[in-house]
Amino acid sequence: MLVRLRHVTTLLPEGFVEPGRGAGLLDVLRRRYLAKLLVRKELRVRYQGSVLGLLWSYLKPAVQFVVFYFAIGIFLGLSRNIDDFAVYLFSGIVAINYFSEAFGNATRSIVGNGALVKKIYLPRELFPVASLWVAVVHFFPQLLVLVVGALIAGWRPSVLQLGAGALGFLIVTVFSLGLGLLFGAINVVFRDAENFVDLILMVATWTSPVLYFWTNVTDALGTGPLWWLYQANPLTAAVELFHLCFWFPATDQTSPAVPHLGLVGIGALLLSCLVLLLGQATFRRLDGRFAQEL
Amino acid sequence: MTDLTDAVSDAAISTAAATRIIVDDVTKRFTLRHSRALKELVVWTLRGRKESLTNEFVALSDVSFRIDDGETVALLGLNGSGKSTLLKLISGVMRPDAGRVLVRGNVAGLIEVGAGFHPDLTGRENVYLNGAILGMSEQQITDRFADIVAFSEISEFIDTEVKFYSSGMFLRLAFSVAVHTEPDIFLVDEILAVGDEPFQRKCLAKIRELKAAGHALVIVSHDLDMVARLCERGILLEQGKIIVDGPVDTAVAEMRSRF
Lengths: 294, 259
Hints:
The structure holds 2 protein chains of 2 kinds. Chain A is mostly helical. Chain A has helices at 25-30, 32-46, 56-75, 78-81, 85-112, 114-119, 126-152, 159-189, 192-204, 214-221, 225-232, 234-247, 261-287, 290-293, and strands spanning 2-4, 11-13, 16-17.
């Protein structure tokens, strides 16, 4: 008796499967428990033998914040033009840090777990997803610090503004997972991918309005095609949504709002979904070669 | 020597309920890439792509066989004959370049001792991690945890980090987790060489138990006496081709006469 499975070109005898052909990200949902253990392992191993442990995930953004605050805010004088500059700065940093960690670690996850990939079959999407999950674990303490800071500055967000924050988080999550799958797979074949990703992460802080205000960009580029190109970066939308959620309701709410932010946000989410589809498709294409390339 | 090729070509049409593994005209090539740096690719392109950038090596060519429930099959051959590649294809770690591999039920492989064990985690954590990697649910691992530890005989070290284990202790725990996944198909690659004799005997007894329970077993080993005792069927590979597929004694005798 014959049954037609997902792979329409092959007829498989009933009950048989081709080993090594999974359902991609759907398999990760099915193996949540394993994903959870991989995350726990990652966190345990990362802070093994470290005195400060998880505190490092607070310390790094704290130092980053202090440096930027003095260099950009005080020395370059941006804190004079932007209300509650500290909250403005930190809400952007938090979004970019989340992206950097998720994307950077996902890119290295397949090569880093090479010993396992070579010897036992498991849905390989688990590794980038586990990297993303670890990044989320590090994101929430920072978010907590941000919220406390915003509250001190007088934060009173509306439901819509909280929704903007959630949308920003969703954009970064989908975008970094998509890019992580894409570059994680390519990195197995060409280790250059790792360095290329470092390059992307280096400029990511500067290509979004983290250290400056959006009007600085329109002053220089105008509001024509270049401005739209600038805004096409999903991270830009995410950073602005974070500003709308955490910073704007903490100020006197007189700063000029980014035009069409809702539309830009939806567009960024759609673009991120496309990147995720592309990442998953590339990952599945290269997946069969992982074991022999590592 | 039993010729199974005809049976295999019919496999797609009628499958006896007992069949567990179908390997159908499988070919696997490896491209040995000289370089993976972008710079050298560019230089190579600028030079007009003259010399081939890769070497091809055929690990398996047109290999076909079927394995049924309760069969214990030894894969024999010299190093580089394609035995381990075949196991990796059955476990799904690699995919064939031509032909196809089909399995029914879940596969557990001991392709290498303790792959999936992490040195910085304790024995207990590794049992859970490795059990989950091999496809067990949390409940299943918890239910079998006591058995796994008892079988490994290292209960006093179970909460010690695995990096402090001796290689023997490591093997015991890894093997113990793998056999307790109760796989329909169990793949064993050369691991029984490690471990002391009493533990080896215990492993062999466990393997016989799995076999009696109707699981399919595929074993790669250079220990010809051991596989002759354990398996009833032997497949002898030479340079990626099947030379003998028949009773294990025939395969072992052929192996000894050839090499």
